[in-house]
Design goal:
Elements lengths: L3 E8 L2 H9 L15 H11 L1 E8 L18 H9 L10
Parallel strand pairs: 1-2
Length: about 90
């Protein structure tokens, strides 16, 4: 493998971003929630010469969720992050 390794790449899947907005979270960390998708992440990686990345949920994460909301929070790590995880060769389409 050649290229950089991004050790802190953030993901914010659409269903999670929608849930956050519905619960009043629009600009965590002082920045609007960005558009994110596996394809956009892979395009960015290709443009920047990144061969591998470690994904984590973007700010604000899920630690702030009150107990009464826990079951309604989308599971971005398991529903979106896991399918992105299998390694791909540089020539594979995103």
């Amino acid at each position: 493998m050649t290229g950089y390794i991004d050790v802190q790449q953030h993901m914010i899947p659409a269903d999670y971003a929608r849930w956050l907005r519905e619960h009043g979270v629009h600009a965590p960390g002082g920045r609007e929630l960005p558009e994110w998708s596996p394809a956009l992440a892979l395009e960015l990686m290709d443009r920047q010469g990144i061969a591998a990345a470690i994904l984590s949920i973007s700010t604000p994460g899920v630690h702030w969720v009150r107990p009464e909301y826990e079951r309604s929070v989308p599971r971005p790590g398991s529903t979106v992050g896991c399918p992105v995880c299998p390694p791909r060769s540089r020539g594979d389409p995103p």
